[in-house]
Design goal:
Its cofactor is Zn(2+). This is Aminopeptidase N. One of its GO terms (molecular function) is metallopeptidase activity. Its EC number is 3.4.11.2. 42% of the residues lie in helices and 21% in strands. The protein has five domains: 201 residues, tricorn interacting facor f3 domain (Immunoglobulin-like), CATH 2.60.40.1730; 110 residues, 2-Layer Sandwich (Zincin-like); 144 residues, Orthogonal Bundle (Neutral Protease, domain 2); 106 residues, Aminopeptidase N, middle-beta domain (Immunoglobulin-like); 329 residues, Zincin-like fold (Alpha Horseshoe), CATH 1.25.50.10. Helix 5 packs across helix 6 and helix 12 runs parallel beside helix 16. The strands form eight sheets. It has an eight-stranded mixed beta sheet, with no helix packed on it. The two termini are 37 Å apart. It is built from 27 helices and 31 strands. By secondary structure, the protein is an alpha+beta fold. Bound molecules: (3S)-3,7-diaminoheptanoic acid and zinc ion. The site of zinc ion (ZN) has 4 residues, from helix 3.
Length: 907
């Protein structure tokens, strides 16, 4: 073996980009697939790049973990080919264009990194993004080298009856010795990161549809035979995605065939390889017995996301990896819009707005919980990063979720039509090219005849912007003025260095009168009122906006629908928040008002808890929540979101010094107060939201189940949870779907955490659950996760349970889903137990990061990020976290984990 990944932490910088010295127009790959020794023959047509800075003396190809066999140029063996630290160096180059053929060997069976070519459950799969193709063959493995591919796969026919690659099937047939072959051709030029192959014992469901221009398309979803009954929803989601992209963006499927393949060993959610999307089974397989409502909707979103990449990512790709958000931010925005449209269905007016708002709230929750935290920590980076050590560490919340917000703001500024004009121009200019975030911004600017120079700062500045709002009302002149000031809160040194000036912030506002209705809005200088919500274009450090003809002092509804990824500071009183929660016409801001109220209450409780003082809750807060609970004009899905308290990790993040134990005490206290003071209401809600009959994963039914199960969770926290236990036990036994069954199990676990309550019901259900679903890996993942995230108690220490489960025969650290279900669920999904003062959680974390580092650096690096915020914690915890980080830093080898822990320690 040669070319192991270099261990030195070389920093790659955006400013160092240079065009490639050579281009590869076409590639012919031949694979002889054998698990421990796969021979790859790679024949490329190369030419010198006319845009290269200078004529390079040698061709430097990237390669990792490959055994070099031979090279030939234009059909003749080539002597000047040398294996280097990073790949293969070829000299004695014969002119401007030539054919280079290379033979090499790789070992998929031993590949636990799940990057490159690997074996999972006896089948072959690939994962090439970002830099996995160089683990398959020597290549210019960078996204600005785009080529057409012809791929021949040869393998034993009995063991690998199905042979798939990108594009269209050209030919297939038998070979001597029980082997067979298939040849695939992808007519579209693509970067190497979109290459894929699959070989093995798989079956599929298929459908033929006609695309918008009337062409026939073959759609397939491939899975292992036992999973064929769990493919319908993925297929439906694919068809819906195709239709949506035709309708909303005029984008048609370009290939004759589109395939999705499910694999159980996969580092992330899914991968958009051209015409051959490879998916984590978690985002494909679903039937009512095994998948929850959330699984169903995640599958729809991820199938959409990968399909939408076919245009935003594949037809137009990234020039270099710094531009990752060009495809990811845009595609997340597209999948969010798709899900919102699917949730709204045929509904119109307020019903459609409510359905869309539910999706928006879910997305913003993720952004605020995870991306805002990232922006405040040592890994903070702009949407378009300036440097990286390991690119796989930059598939982040910032690149994806903040990137999506940056795309959404174009639509907020220009409207749907203006956004569409920008998209059309982008494809007209750049189809078939590898481009930059600047190219996208220019297309939006030119199509809408706007100067968007200032907007560039959204791509280059790290940290979460903070907008402080002051309001003043002049009763005599009937003028109401909002003064906005923008800046950044507390950020790291590195983030601060990127902050150069004010941003263009589309700031959406409404004004609410004393009767709860929106007031008509007329900005100073406008001829007529422009509706009841307006988008202020806020571009300066401080700027005032004056509304005229304002008859009464209004209550402002700020940043409606979360029109920009910023934090808003405004001194609302509790009464005003309760008023907004009850009245705001913007459903997002109704929810937001409730969250502000709850957050304020919870932080006050946490402060008391950390000083050991007694806890108490304001009656008005309880009453405000009771009103939402009773308000049947609100959809169940919305009420569920509004009645859910902010998460412990989000709350801890809001404290000047994070104290997970105090936050936990506060949140448990408030939950139990809501449970006991509104007990009868929860019971009534539980009854009113049953969904008898056949299971349907529709937004309406899912909303009801969500609200019903939230009621059950509150009831399970009563001092005397016997009624809840009975309800949960019955729900567990009678359930005809996984949403209700797993919610019942989780309620039993929650009830068992009440002091003095017995754990026997929970234990019996856990045992039953395991036996029932022993053969369903995705359900067993849930079984592990439920136990790892349980509340626990003094005599039920979750760390002990987790350590025990690590020894369970079904546990396998090499399978990322399983590792996530137990290790990650505990380390990031159970803050109170993970941050135990004895440091037991951190010791466990360190052991697992070190173990994973040797097997799968990408997964290890994700886990390693679990302690990056160590400086924000109480001194006692901080010290133990620092020790764990230092221990990890001294033992790990991968570039991935080193980058994360070194940045954390240096912060
Ligand atoms: N593009 C892939 C992510 C690849 C991650 C590589 N470490 C999935 C997606 O965003 O659609
Ligand atoms: Zn993506």
């Amino acid at each position: 073996m040669s070319n192991t990944a270099p261990t030195a932490s070389a920093v790659i910088r955006r400013e160092d980009y240079t065009p490639p010295a050579f281009l590869i127009d076409s590639v012919a790959l031949e694979f002889d697939l054998v698990p421990s020794r796969t021979v790859v023959k790679n024949t490329m047509r190369l030419r010198r790049n006319p845009d290269a800075a200078s004529a390079a003396p040698r061709l430097e190809l990237m390669g990792e973990q490959l055994e070099f066999v031979s090279a030939s140029i234009d059909g003749k063996p080539h002597a000047d080919a040398h294996v280097t630290e990073n790949g293969l160096s070829i000299g004695d180059i014969p002119g401007d264009a030539f054919e280079l053929s290379i033979e090499s060997i790789c070992n998929p069976a031993e590949n636990t990194t799940l990057s490159g070519l690997y074996v999972s459950s006896g089948n072959f799969f690939t994962q090439c993004e970002a830099e996995g193709f160089r683990r398959i063959t020597y290549f210019l493995d960078r996204p600005d080298v785009m080529s057409t591919y012809t791929v021949t796969l040869r393998a034993d026919k009995a063991a690998y009856p199905v042979l798939l690659s990108n594009g269209n099937l050209l030919e297939e047939g038998d070979l001597p010795d029980g082997r067979h072959f298939a040849t695939w051709e992808d007519p579209f030029k693509k970067p190497s990161y979109l290459f894929a192959l699959v070989a093995g014992k798989l079956v599929c469901i298929e459908e033929r549809i006609k695309s918008s221009s009337g062409k026939e398309k073959l759609l397939q979803v491939w899975v292992e035979p036992q999973d064929l009954d769990k493919t319908r929803h993925a297929m439906d989601s694919l068809i819906h995605s195709i239709r949506w992209d035709e309708k909303r963006f005029g984008l048609e499927l370009d290939l004759d065939r589109f395939m999705i393949v499910a694999v159980s060993d996969f580092n992330m959610g899914a991968m958009e390889n051209k015409g051959l999307n490879i998916f984590n089974t978690k985002y494909v397989l679903a039937n009512p017995e095994t998948a929850t409502d959330i699984d169903f909707s995640n599958i729809e979103a991820v199938v959409g996301h990968e399909y939408f990449h076919n245009w935003t990512g594949n037809r137009v790709t990234c020039r270099d990896w710094f531009q990752l958000s060009l495809k990811e931010g845009l595609t997340v925005f597209r999948d969010q819009e798709f899900s919102a449209d699917m949730a709204a269905g045929d509904a119109e007016g307020a019903a459609s707005a409510a359905a869309r708002a539910t999706k928006r709230i879910e997305d913003v929750r993720v952004l605020r919980q995870m991306q805002f935290a990232e922006d405040a920590g040592p890994m903070a980076h702009p949407v378009r990063p300036e440097s990286y050590v390991e690119i796989n560490n930059f598939y982040t919340m910032t690149v994806y979720e903040k990137g999506s917000e940056v795309v959404r703001m174009y639509q907020t500024l220009f409207g749907r039509d203006g956004f569409r004009r920008g998209m059309d121009l982008y494809f007209q200019r750049h189809d078939g090219q590898a481009v930059t975030c600047d190219d996208f911004r220019r297309a939006m600017a030119d199509a809408n005849k706007r100067d968007l120079a200032q907007y560039e700062r959204w791509y280059s500045q790290a940290g979460t912007p903070r907008v402080t709002v002051r309001a003043s009302y002049d009763a005599a002149a009937k003028r109401y003025t909002l003064t906005l000031a923008q800046g950044y809160g507390e950020t790291s040194e590195a983030a601060r260095a990127t902050q150069k000036g004010p941003l263009l912030i589309p700031f959406s506002v409404g004004l609410i009168g004393s009767n709860g209705a929106d007031l008509p809005l007329r900005l100073e200088g406008e001829q007529q009122p422009g509706g009841t919500t307006c988008v202020l274009e806020f571009t300066e450090r401080e700027q005032s906006f004056t509304f005229v003809d304002v008859d009464e002092p209004p209550l402002p509804s700020l940043l409606r629908n979360f029109s920009a990824p910023v934090i808003v500071d405004f001194d609302y009183t509790n009464e005003q928040l309760a008023f907004l929660l009850a009245n705001d016409s913007d459903p997002f801001n109704r929810w937001e008002a409730g969250q502000r109220l709850a957050t304020r209450e919870l932080l006050a409780l946490a402060a008391r808890a950390s000083k050991g003082e007694a806890l108490a809750i304001d009656d008005e807060t309880i009453a405000a929540f009771a009103r939402v609970l009773d308000d049947t004009t609100l959809t169940p899905a919305f009420r569920e979101l509004a009645l859910m308290l902010p998460s412990e990790s989000y709350l801890a993040e809001q404290m000047s010094v994070s104290d997970p134990a105090a936050v936990h005490a506060a949140r448990v206290f408030m939950s139990r107060q809501l449970a006991s003071r509104l007990r009868d209401k929860w019971l009534a809600l539980y009854e009113a939201n049953r969904t008898p009959g056949e299971y349907r994963p529709t937004p309406e039914d899912a909303g009801k189940r969500g609200l019903k199960n939230l009621a059950l969770a509150y009831l399970s926290q009563l001092d005397d949870p016997r009624d809840a236990v009975q309800l949960a036990q019955k729900q567990y036994d009678d359930a005809n779907n996984m949403t209700d069954r797993s919610a019942a199990l989780s309620a039993l676990l929650l009830a068992s955490a009440t002091a003095g309550a017995s754990a026997s019901a929970a234990d019996a259900a856990l045992e039953d659950f395991y036996r029932r679903f022993e053969k369903e890996p995705l359900v067993i993942d849930k079984w592990f996760a439920l136990q790892a995230t349980q509340r626990g108690g003094a005599d039920r220490k979750v760390i002990d349970i987790v350590r025990n489960l690590m020894q369970h025969p079904a546990f396998n650290i090499k399978n990322p889903n399983r590792a996530r279900s137990l290790i990650f669920s505990f380390c990031s999904g159970n803050p109170a137990q993970f941050h135990a003062v004895d440091g037991s959680g951190y010791a466990f974390w360190a052991e697992q990061v070190i173990a994973l580092d040797a097997l799968n650096p990408q997964v290890a690096a994700r886990l390693a990020r679990g302690l990056e915020m160590w400086r924000r914690f109480t001194p006692q915890l901080r010290e133990k976290m620092h020790a764990a980080l230092t221990e990890v830093a001294s033992k790990v080898k991968s570039r991935d984990v080193r980058e994360v822990v070194e940045k954390a320690l240096a912060s």
